[in-house]
Amino acid sequence: MKLLEDKILNEGKVLEGGILKVDGFLNHRLDVALIAELGADIAREFASCGADLILTVESSGISIACAAAFKMGIPVLVAKKHKSYNISDGVYTAPVFSFTHKTENIVLVSKEYLNAGAKVLIVDDFLASGNAALGLLSLIEQAGATAVGFVAAIEKSEQGGRALIEQKGVKVYSLARIKEMRAGDIKFE
User: What is the model's pLDDT at position 52?
Assistant: First the structure.
């Protein structure tokens, strides 16, 4: 999506360690107009997939997931990184390693909201090594639901996450695919 690619080129910053800083418009301070366009694009791409739920992981993917869900007329389920008192003990869990934070979290969703037979579209802000995607796919499999696609706002192609998801038979759609990046130079697929 050219709009997102231009935003990345104009406002994104490549940091040491392969980190792309886009927090000024995507996942800290939000450019709501941009997020709405991302959601509309996702809804167009997956209009006929039959999804009845969007799954994301807290917290950076929530805004994009909500924008897509609003356009598709379906709810969003947020995989939590910490169990709170208002979530029952009936949960599905999966480990997820964060590339950005260099930590592993056990993400969870309530069995009450992820049901067998559900058709689930996963939406996240980034796709890098595929760890978050595999964790979310595990939650879907545990529930007896079906993943109808995986969406990333930004994919770092060189880290290989796409192949891991596609090996599971899940369609991958990225709004911006970064082929390579270093300070001052970002190249898209």
Answer: 97
